């Protein structure tokens, strides 16, 4: 599939997805949302996909919502706004549940929906000069569609501070609150991303997908309440082909079959 606002570079089991609207700082509009949703649906049906890297063309990762798009939607009816917002929510959900390791490469700025996109990625690596912010309240709107994912990453206390004020914050703070996992100089950003890609490719594809699906099933619940879920999950994986291969490879001191050079 061809895209107007996304640049796709497939390298074996790894797909590099670049937001490609540098003239408007990779801002989201209905067309970008539609393309990202279409990409995510394709990714869900791609058994060969094992890792994804999101990046932004130009000077920033993403400045959030396109001002022209927001102005247009302000003139639309309530029902039209609900349909538009639901499309955005479906995009974030589709990306959040891609059954592969999804990595965000953040440079420059990730604001509003840009920070939301970071929140639905499994691993977020940022340059040390990057700026973040849930800036919606500065514009008189809300970080509504991204809130479920951001709250899972940063918790209610940080969300109260950052959602309500709309203040911008640096990469160090983003790491402290859990939105970002690694902060490195810009010159080291690609090397660090490559390191995480290598780590992703060393893990069992089926185990990655099942572990990712397991997290929301047990998150926030008492251990006793999820005992059956967790017991079934590990039992199913132990007897699966990849579970058997991984344990055999470990005992025989060799690499499992899914480990290969890129």
Structure write-up:
The chain is an alpha/beta fold. It folds into 2 domains: about 200 residues, 2-enoyl-CoA Hydratase, Chain A, domain 1 (Alpha-Beta Complex), CATH 3.90.226; about 45 residues. The strands form 2 sheets. The chain has a 6-stranded mixed β-sheet with strand order 1-2-3-4-6-9, with helices on both faces. α1 runs parallel beside α3 and α8 runs antiparallel to α9. The longest helix has 19 residues. It starts with 5 loop residues before the first strand and ends in an 11-residue tail after the last helix. The mean pLDDT is about 95.
This entry's quaternary arrangement is single chain
Number of helices: 10
Number of strands: 9
How far the N terminus sits from the C terminus, by CA atoms, comes to 23 Å
Low-pLDDT runs = none
Structure at a glance:
The chain is α/β, with parallel strands linked by helices. The chain is 49% helix and 16% strand.
Please outline the helices and strands.
Elements: E1 6-11, E2 14-19, H1 30-44, E3 51-56, H2 67-74, H3 78-96, E4 101-106, E5 109-111, H4 113-119, E6 123-127, E7 131-133, H5 147-165, E8 168-170, H6 171-177, E9 182-184, H7 186-201, H8 205-218, H9 227-238, H10 241-251
Parallel strand pairs: 2-3, 3-4, 4-6, 5-7, 6-9
Antiparallel strand pairs: 1-2, 7-8
